[in-house]
Amino acid sequence: MEFKKDETFFTGRLKSITFAVKGAFKLITTEHSVMVQSSVALLVTLAGFYFGISKSEWLIQTLAIGLVLGIEGLNTAVEKIADFVHPEFHERIGFIKDIAAGAVFFAALTAIAVAAIIYIPYLA
Length: 124
Fold this sequence. Notes:
InterPro entries: DAGK (IPR000829), DAGK_sf (IPR036945), UDPK (IPR033717). The chain is mainly α. The chain has helices spanning 9-30, 32-51, 55-85, 91-123.
């Protein structure tokens, strides 16, 4: 199958958006960690409406959710590529996968800090 580049701006962007939505759907419906993180994102979004958080709190919360889900998507891609390249356990592949998981960990810690800063005053 020969690759044929779409030369028009509009249809090219439309195809890109279609691929991105398809990828996001695959991520949410197949990866358990993303399912959990999406559920937490939904809960804090509902909490935001319940507590009536400010516009700036919404902005920071939205960025934190996007950060975690975006980094998790990249982590999943790294893991899938690593498993494709070397399906058996390999120490160097494990090292790479651990680093990618560490990036998710930092993003999650950041999101937890954001949630604490936003919601603890509403709960106190």
